[in-house]
Give the backbone structure.
Amino acid sequence: MKKNISILGTLDTKREEVVFIKGIIESRGYSTTVIDVGPLGPPLNEPDVSNEKVAKLAGRELPELLRFGLRDQIMKSMGEGASRVLLNLFKDGRVDGVIGIGGNQGTAIASMGMKVLPIGFPKFIISTVASGDIRPYVGYKDIGIMFSVADLIGGPNSVTGPILLNAVSALLGMVEHGERISLQKGDNKIAISALGNTQPAVDHAMELLREKGFQVIAFHASGAGGSAMEELIEEGVFHGVLDLTPHELTEEVVEAGVYVPIRPGRLTSAGRLGIPQVVSLGGMEYLCFGPKESIPFKFRRRRIHMHNPYNANVKLSRSEMAKVGRTMANRLNEANGPSAVLVPLRGWSVYGAEGGPFHDSKAYEIFVQVLRSNLKKSVQFEEIDAQINDPVFVDSCVKILLNFIGGEKN
């Protein structure tokens, strides 16, 4: 049976490009499923899944949607419908990869559709807007995206034709030679969260856990990394979690920074599923922004440290520290499995350690007092006279996690 590639395209504006892509894929021995996500009229060629069916799967009738819906509502509905088409195909085993093509709107619809597919499933978009801020489109999923260079109007030409061919080749390479993420239980995988400011701690923890036979997978606490970690925890990938750097929770609670988690709910998945977790406070004393001029005015009077010319870190206020501490306690209190919080009394990051630009013992005290007073007794709580990157602190974190999950694995 031929492998199948789904093609997402707005056939009202990108019909010729979609036909071109379809021809390339089928010439290489694959079957295709063309899904029309363009809302503005019937295409010249009949697709495999019509725009009317896409809208209907989102609970809307296309004529009514066009008559009464605002542009953003129309695009959202087509994106939701596309996600349902792809999910149904995936569940039935009738799709092996998906490719999308579009401008701003087509990219948005294609990405909304693809985000329902699991991490590791081949997905790719050719887009006119791929050289800009693509975070809203990619989110925390492994969506490959390629800039079209020239606009996708009037059919393939000497510039866009080779780019479309290369994009198809990239997707088919994933389909033929890629590998899905293993969801096997008992694989002894540990998730760990990291930032540059906690890298020494993470490196030491990974070394200790590997010596005990565990595979350790690190996630950068960048908003996307922690969100991906939470989803993979839900999918049963991990045996335990060492959340040394739950920085994203700070930005989620304060609702500011470039590392706000893409999916809300940091520090919830492991507890909900009863997966053993040890949590610390890495990077929770500051917010991350882009260049200095990108910092909102309300934060500009605070202590600022430039991580590099393109990234500014801004110290949290003491009232915000209390709010984040309370939220952390509330989320950990819901845990159905063994959980512990370890507090490094001498600092939570390179910048927050004694002598660092964000060290504030009073703010730490406020956070920890609120955290301790709100935690249930079922959550183990320990304070250690060290900073987070000291080996003695990491040793304690790893020791408790190993106790939770039963020690050494072969």
